[in-house]
Design brief:
Pfam families: 7tm_1
Keywords: Cell membrane, G-protein coupled receptor, Membrane, Receptor, Transducer, Transmembrane, Transmembrane helix
CATH architecture: Up-down Bundle
Number of helices: 12
Radius of gyration: 21 Å
Order of helices and strands: EEHHHHHHHHHHHH
CATH topology: Rhopdopsin 7-helix transmembrane proteins
CATH class: Mainly Alpha
Organism: Dreissena polymorpha (Zebra mussel)
Shape: globular
GO molecular function, one term: G protein-coupled receptor activity
Distance between the termini: 48 Å
Strand order of the largest sheet: 1-2
Membrane topology: Multi-pass membrane protein
Length: 314
């Protein structure tokens, strides 16, 4: 234990041990799983819908977490090179870019599902390929620029406090930048919950209406598909909330009562936030029959996907 500002704070070594355990558990599955999604969607033309493209974009974000962020952070901890200013700032910049883009891309999926379910007849006009590409590009540009700001001067890194354990946002970012990034994440969480809640409400209402009206086989089949989509969305939303809500609650606490103790507590629930990047590919890969079939074909090195599944289930 160490004492600071009147509070007893758990030694950072225990905190880093948990981080490293999570890293080793999710690194390889995250790389392999998201790599499979990227290869599958690029390789097979059948997987070119707006939803699949957005899942591909999310997989790129999560692949950066597994293939770049985690190895860089582990290397810095094990070889004690985080005392170097450039290495430290690059590491925390990777946190902002990779996790920020992952949250933003989940928001894009929420927007796409919202438009597809709430405005089914106008969905293709409202979200064209060009509009979607523009939204994706804007998201990447903003998150990359946001991550680079500390490297280009917006930092409080001090050589007098430079050590492996001091390479934390509270040590190297100024308060304004830190609060801004925290609240961007909070707004993204609120937006995701709001959009998914609306979509779930509309989907349930449509499904219940069709079950009362339609006795045709096609109507029942469509209702079953929509309910499957609904369950998938509930799983996605529930996982996102479970992983990010604790951190967002601490954002509010730290904003109102900023002290070293709460700053340390706030860092702990960031761990399930990183874990979320290792779960997204499982949800979207396992619950989507086309992607699941593509996984098998990629692993077995097959060139085409037979049309054994009649409709893509998002």
């Amino acid at each position: 234990m160490m004492e600071k500002d009147g509070y007893y704070i758990t030694d950072l070594s225990a905190y880093l041990t948990v981080w490293h355990a999570v890293y080793f558990c999710i690194m390889i599955p995250t790389i392999v799983g998201n790599g499979l999604i990227i290869i599958s969607i690029i390789k097979y033309r059948k997987l070119r819908s707006n939803m699949h493209v957005l899942v591909l974009n999310l997989a790129v974000s999560d692949l950066i977490v597994g293939a770049v962020l985690i190895p860089v952070d582990l290397f810095g901890d094990f070889f004690k090179v985080k005392s170097d200013k450039n290495y430290c700032l690059a590491t925390v910049a990777l946190f902002i870019t990779s996790l920020g883009s992952s949250c933003y891309n989940l928001l894009l999926i929420s927007i796409e599902r919202y438009i597809a379910i709430v405005y089914p007849l106008r969905a293709r006009l409202m979200l064209t390929k060009s509009k979607m590409a523009l939204m994706i590009a804007i998201g990447w540009v903003l998150t990359i620029l946001d991550g680079l700001l500390p490297i280009f001067g917006l930092n409080t890194f001090s050589n007098s406090t430079a050590n492996a354990s001091a390479c934390l946002s509270t040590e190297v970012w100024n308060k304004g930048y830190r609060v801004s990034n925290d609240w961007q994440l909070l707004v993204a969480l609120i937006a995701n919950v709001t959009l998914y809640s609306i979509v779930v409400f509309v989907a349930v209402r449509k499904a219940s209406g069709k079950s009362r009206i339609g006795d045709a086989i096609q109507g029942r089949s469509r209702t079953t598909k929509e309910m499957y989509q609904l369950i998938t969305m509930v799983i996605v939303l529930g996982t996102f909330i479970l992983c990010w809500l604790p951190y967002n609650v601490m954002i509010i606490f730290v904003t109102l009562w900023d002290c070293e103790y709460y700053q340390f507590i706030k860092r702990c629930p960031l761990i399930p936030g990183v874990l979320n990047s290792g779960l997204n590919w499982i949800i979207y890969g396992y619950r989507n029959a086309d992607i699941r079939t593509a996984f098998k074909h990629v692993i077995m090195c097959k060139k085409t996907i037979r049309n054994s599944y009649h409709a893509s289930v998002s």
